Amino acid sequence: MDKDWTVTRFLRAIVAAFAVALSACGGGGDGSGPVSPPTAEAAGAVTTSALRSQNNGFNYTIQVYVPASYATGTTTLPAIYVTEGDAPYGNATGGSGAVSTTPSRFDTFKAVMQRRGTQAILVGISGTARRDTDFLLPTASAYLAFITKELAPSIEHQYRADPTRRALSGLSHGGYFVVAALVMEGTAGTPSFAYYLSTDSSFGAHGNVPTYLDYVKQLNANANPLPTTLFLGGAAMFNGPIATQLYTLLTQQPHPGFTVLKSIYDTSHVGSDVPAFEEALTRFFP
Predict the structure, then answer these.
(1) DSSP, res 137
(2) Cα–Cα distance between 148 and 126 in angstroms, integer?
(3) pTM
(4) What is the pLDDT of residues 210-262, one digit of tens each?
(5) Rg for the chain (alpha carbons), in Å?
(6) What three-state secondary structure class fits 60?
């Protein structure tokens, strides 16, 4: 059900049609022409650094994009934490066999934000090779602790990032991780993110959808306040049905302050990623 990152054509309005060679699945999505390069006024800036996790020992590459207005502004901005920021949305090699330049998930989301003029900080987290470790239980708890206890405080120390307006984004196994993060935090105390953005979630390592839903039912064990928003995006012909079942489950038990939203797209598995991200920007970071 984790119709993962091997895609033949992709991304409307962001990149041209690509043949994708990623990890372990099939599918396809229509793409149109590439976006024009941003103007100097819209470009903003990107910094790249490394952060070794004290929770799992892995050394993550971290990319941070700030909009052009950041340099002369004084206000704090929301921060969007993007798992698999290093995942390529294209061929690893060109037609002649030479290595080609292909946009990553971070690059693609950055281009969307530049085009829209989104006033937010984008944080791309490497680690696509660790997706079966970092995103799935039980080891997902260490990865979540890395993001919330190490990465986010570091970003908020270095940048004018608002800790009350954090967002966490993931696709497929990453989309599962976003939901699992909400379950882990929501059952233990206050969520660390204002927005949990789960796109075309797999059922993780639970084996099937019913056991995944049983896991998520922990959130419905009581009616305690849950001051956050979960946005479930899905591809109609892929994992969209999982998003729909999660939505149905989580709207059965009201929690003060908790909002659950759902959108299903007529796209491929990976092709749902950009439409879901754009909708999240429209809803939460206009």
Answers:
(1) T
(2) 16
(3) 0.83
(4) 999 999 999 988 778 899 999 999 999 999 999 999 999 999 888 899 999 99
(5) 18
(6) strand
